[in-house]
Amino acid sequence: MTTAINTKPAQVIEFDQDPTVVDRDPYQEDLATYDVANAYLFKADAQGPWFKRLRDEAPVHFCPDHLLGPYWSITRYEDIMAVDTNPEVFSSEPAITMRDPEEDFTLPMFIAMDPPKHDDQRKVVNSAVGPAGLKTFEPLIRERTADVLDKLPVGEEIDWVDNVSIELTTRMLATLFDFPYEDRRKLTRWSDVTTAIPGQGIIESEEQRREELVECLQYFTNLWNERVNAEPRNDFISMLAHGSATKEMQPLEFLGNLILLIVGGNDTTRNTMSASVFELDRHPGEYAKLLADPSLIPSMVSETIRFQTPLAHMRRTARVDTELRGQKIKAGDKVIMWYWSGNRDERFFDRPDEYIIDRDKVRSHLAFGFGIHRCMGNRLAELQLRVLWEEIMKRFDRIEVVGEPERSLSVFVRGFTALPVILHPKT
Ligand code: HEM
To answer: Is the pLDDT score of 14 beyond 70?
Structure first.
């Protein structure tokens, strides 16, 4: 495989969202122009009342004017399920985020494909994170988690995001790809570059994004070329290079699927790791429950995933004219399933705005999606988080959050960029 592709972006969209949105009262806004897809709302964690109003007054809502084009918002649990489980009407093509692919730099990936191609490609890599794969991974995950935690300084301020969440998820990704271990932070960088808004700290321009992603492709192409001629193994690259539905992929499709596996396994789990520390610190009563009964760890993990919802939404595109709650959605319209809002829907969850680690129906959240695209790595993510907390509780009495966290500027990735903490060792 070779990597000859164009790196000059044809179309550049300026990020010009209004930061003062966080000072506005959603109940004073006109529903005709109401726009929840503003990254500043999510950065300030101020989206709550904006979505509550939509769930109550306009659960299937059309926003006519957004920098990435008009879109529908689906905000209730039941309606999100209906859309997510109906790929015949709501397609995952051409994209699962609000931004349409650029004509000369389309990255096909199976999350943004419909059957049958989606199903064939997913099958190629699925077994790496299936039950047998997870059994093999658990001891390794535990060993690496212990290693990271044992090296942390106690009693002084550290950034949990960089020292633990990023380090652990990057090590896991390096394992899944059998990626050169010493270069593993490149994976973090490519994940960040993929989801960054140009001019906001990580990359300066779309052109830079393309250049860095082409470097990513070049690096992985070398690994592919090594593995395609070797015996098939259980890492993602070898599986893609030998899989009948993936071995003929063109370079951009290889890059697309790499990006999917890198971002899918990185930002999401990373941000849940940070969220678990943040929420347990903010909710001492819930932390006391966990200390009294550590068998609640798996339930706490699921509640953290619901509460955080690390991917705030997925997009679908209507294939045909259709109707939902009396609203007429036209073929070609963008339909945004706001998982974050579905996970706060008071019609489905009891006291949805509260963090309750032993709540009923704790795994029924929407944060992994539903239907044929339901997160492929969901059991792996839960395993990583469970092991992390089992190892934390052996070592520390408390992880104290000592400053305000910094949150991501994004309507897609709901995450933390910094979380200052002090570790208190077990006495
Ligand atoms: C807490 C952690 C995670 C969250 C919240 C999460 C969330 C999601 C969501 C919302 C989807 C789309 C579902 C839909 O459209 O119905 C998805 C798909 C996917 N996730 Fe995850 N994810 C997580 C961890 C992981 C991990 C660790 C991997 C590891 C490889 C992974 C790989 C994928 C892949 C490959 C897909 C595409 C599945 C398909 O299209 O069939 N995810 N994830």
So the answer is: no
Q: What is the pLDDT of residue 133?
A: 84
Nearest atom in ligand 1 to 381's CA: 27
Residue 11: predicted pLDDT: 55
The CA 326 to ligand 1 mean position distance, Å, reads: 31
Distance 369 CA to ligand 1 centre (A): 8
Query: Which of 156, 271, 346 has the alpha carbon at shortest distance from 279?
Result: 271
Q: Residues with beta carbon inside 6 Å of ligand 1?
A: 84, 110-111, 122, 129, 260-261, 264-265, 268-269, 272, 305, 310-311, 314, 367-371, 373-377, 380-381
With the most atoms of ligand 1 within 8 angstroms of its CB, the residue from 179, 195, 268, 274 to mutate is: 268
Q: In this predicted model, what pLDDT tens digit does every residue of 286-317 receive, in sequence order?
A: 999 999 999 999 999 999 999 999 999 999 99
Determine the Cα–Cα distance for residues 416 and 270; give it in Å rounded to an integer: 9
Q: Which pLDDT tens digit goes with each residue over 335-349?
A: 999 999 999 999 999
Sign of the CA dihedral 176, 177, 183, 184? negative
Report the pLDDT value the prediction gives residue 264, as an integer from 0 to 100: 86
Closest-CA residue, ligand 1 atom 6, reads 368
d(CA 25, CA 46): 10
The answer to whether 250 touches 233, Cβ cutoff 8 Å, is: no
Instruction: Give φ, ψ of 309 to 5 degrees.
Output: 45, 75
**pLDDT tier for residue 80 given thresholds of 50, 70 and 90:** very high
